Amino acid sequence: MDTEKQCCDLERKADEPVATNAQRAATGCANFGEEPSLAPGFPSYTRYAVVASCFIIQGLSCGLVHAWGVQQEYLATNVYAGQPAKIKTLGYIGTLMYFGLYFWGMLAGWLAEVWSYRKLCFVGVAVMALGQLLASFCKEPWQLCLSEGLVFGLGVGLVFSPTSAAPARWFTKRRGLATGIAVAGVGVGGLVIAPLTEAIVRRAGVEWSLRISAMYILVLGAIACCFVRVPFQDRERTLRNFNWQAFGDRRFAIHVCMMLFVTAAYITPYAYLPQFWVAKGISAQTASVLIAVANVASSVGRVATGFAADYIGVLNSLVLCTGIAATSCFVVWPFATSVGAGTAMSLAYGFAAGGNWSLAPLAAGKLFGMDKLASNTGIFYTASAVGAWVGSPVAGAILAGPGHSTNYIQMSIYVGALWLAALTMALANRALYSQTLFSKV
């Protein structure tokens, strides 16, 4: 039998573990040990459907995390006005969702590889919809913490890691661009869902906004899940085969630390720059526009840095992005007191900070191989949960310190220091991989 046909037969089903490594080697597959540019046995459009479906799922999940602020503001102003304890509890919900997005990464990546990318995404979408539906019947903030914060956060965490990793499994020459487009769904989802949520809230209330979101999550998410797949899954891997040896690799530990610092730094400017601009005399409406500019720049940055990674190397691109983000916090933020300077800050920070989320999974594939990309990326995201939990609260504590309520210099230095630490880690792994200065790595 022709060996190429055997390879195609072994790899025909995308999300079922149909072949072992030994079988693949025995058939003489030309690309054994590597991910092919296009997996044999699949239609040519399959890889593009994977990118589009991951884009949609990331937009639905992270877009709703971003949109929670609209619902929180309405509840604090109209439902729990004059009840500071309940308003304070509302403030924990966004943190819980953001924490869950990363915390469940290791479990999600592991399950995707030993079970099925597609089936895991179906479960995650169902859990997200359930969280929104349960939240629509909640009457107290602590109940919203359980439904929105924990249940919905779990669903987001289950889909985020596999949809970040799946596109890279289908491409070689355009791997960075494919990943960048998929994770750009985060920014686009926020831009679309936040104003949509605000319109529904003003007309129908928070309860119906949550029920409607549960409906479109379930419908659009289920359709997208049908196309999430990878070209090959190794059925020799089981739940007992977790890659504990990875923790003994110093490059792995460095990448984990880098992701922790990136996550701790990433969200703080988005949370506090509007307050900074208002304190400097810029109107609240203009400040919201500047944050929207940062979100647009973030989406563009995710695609552009992925595209750049295909030409100058993913590790080189990661160093550039972390360096630009650190520079924007140290050099631009303290002086971004006008609309023009604020726009420059939004563009620079949004572009560079967003680009890191395209490059992080690509760097994991570059450093540790593509066959365990989902589980490795999941480990990095779980470590990032620590950064998500402490980053903004520490920044808030700095701002609340004596004499700091209108002086954001200390906060900008804190965030810049986090990015500088991430830059140091990125440089270290770049040097460990290759000490040739101008090589494409």
UniProtKB/TrEMBL annotation:
Domain Major facilitator superfamily (MFS) profile: 47-434
Entry membrane topology: Multi-pass membrane protein
GO cellular component terms listed in the entry, alphabetical order: membrane
Subcellular localization, as worded in the UniProt entry: Membrane
Any Pfam family: MFS_1
Gene Ontology MF terms in the entry: transmembrane transporter activity
Xref: InterPro entries: MFS (IPR011701), MFS_dom (IPR020846), MFS_trans_sf (IPR036259), Proton-linked_MCT (IPR050327)
The UniProt record lists the keyword Transmembrane helix: yes
Keywords: Membrane, Transmembrane, Transmembrane helix
Segments crossing the lipid bilayer: 48-69, 89-108, 149-170, 177-196, 208-232, 252-272, 284-304, 311-335, 347-368, 380-401, 413-433
PROSITE patterns xrefs: MFS (PS50850)
Entry keyword annotation includes Transmembrane: yes
Superkingdom, natural source: Eukaryota
Stated family: Belongs to the major facilitator superfamily. Monocarboxylate porter (TC 2.A.1.13) family.
Cited PANTHER family: EG:103B4.3 PROTEIN-RELATED, MONOCARBOXYLATE TRANSPORTER
Protein name: Major facilitator superfamily (MFS) profile domain-containing protein
Lineage summary: Eukaryota, Fungi, Fungi incertae sedis, Zoopagomycota, Kickxellomycotina
